[in-house]
Amino acid sequence: MKVVLFYDQGRAHSVAAICEVLCAQGCAVTPHAIEQVWNDTSPCSTPLALVQDATHVFFLYAHEPMRDPAFIFFSGVACGRGMHVLLLATTTEVRDIHVFRDLVFLLEEETFEDFFRVEHERFVRQKKKRVARTALLERGYPCFEENFIATVMDGNIDIVNLFLDAGFSAALKDARGTPVLSLAVREGQDEMAAQLIARGAPVDQLSDDRAYSALMEAAQIGNRTVARLLLHAGADPNVRGSNGQTALVLAVGRKDHVLIRLLMDHGANPYLEDKLGLSAQGYAKLFNDPTLCTLVGV
């Protein structure tokens, strides 16, 4: 984030302190005395060169800036180039400025430091997105949701991280309404599931087809590794699918003693009934399996 600071002589005494504040927020600052810049008649000098690489133009005036042609010129150039134009309000006249309200951010002395902190964080996020999108295109991955979903299912962690850096959501669902985390579990992509969880994928997000959570998907296929990972990440073991079944019921159906014990240790409720009126305990009795019955507390 590169800030060009233009100031008049009436505020020259404040420049060093303001530059120190901006540098502390991670900004590269180049100060220019507006009178010197505007009156420079050197044939090698051009005002446009001063803002060539800038991302933000910051004005600091002791008097009304609307009367200054330098302010009008540089703010116009900055707006035309898509830069952010900032003006530190120090007088009543400046605070009452209306003509440039839609083009200029008016900052207060008491809060401008907080503004630059937040702005720098926003700038870094946007830059990270741009870099990631460029990297995706260079590797042959146009920035479409379908490509993101396909790389999740393929287990390409490096590319998925680029998609996430580029602004794609770890909570995205495919066209059928299945969350990308559930897709990773269904495809047996354990490392991908772990990465999505680390990048903020909601662990209890349900699929639209059968209202299964990722934990239920793991229980259905007996993936203890991912089930343990999800439970440690705070997944609810008592989420119920469209048929009323829970991950515990699915584990009982597979007679997976290890997974049943894992779910019970994390608070799975063996009394919850599905739409057939059977709970995990009910299925254990139905299977006439003493070990299952013991595990679910029959």
Order of helices and strands: EHEHEHEHEHHHHHHHHHHH
Count of alpha and pi helical runs: 15
- What is the overall shape? elongated
Largest sheet: 5 strands, parallel
**What is CATH's topology name of the largest domain?**
Rossmann fold
Rounded radius of gyration (Å): 30 Å
Q: Could you tell me the mean pLDDT?
A: 89
Spatial ordering of strands, largest sheet: 2-1-3-4-5
CATH class of the largest domain: Alpha Beta
The CATH H-level superfamily of the largest domain is: Cobalamin-binding domain
Number of strands: 5
User: Approximately how much beta-strand content do the residues carry?
Assistant: 5-15%
Give start-end ranges of low-pLDDT stretches. Answer: none
C-alpha termini separation:
64 Å
Number of domains: 3
Helix content: 40-55%
CATH architecture name of the largest domain = 3-Layer(aba) Sandwich
Pfam families: Ank, Ank_2
Keywords: ANK repeat, Repeat
Protein name: Putative ankyrin repeat-containing protein TP_0502
ANK repeats: 143-172, 176-205, 210-239, 243-272
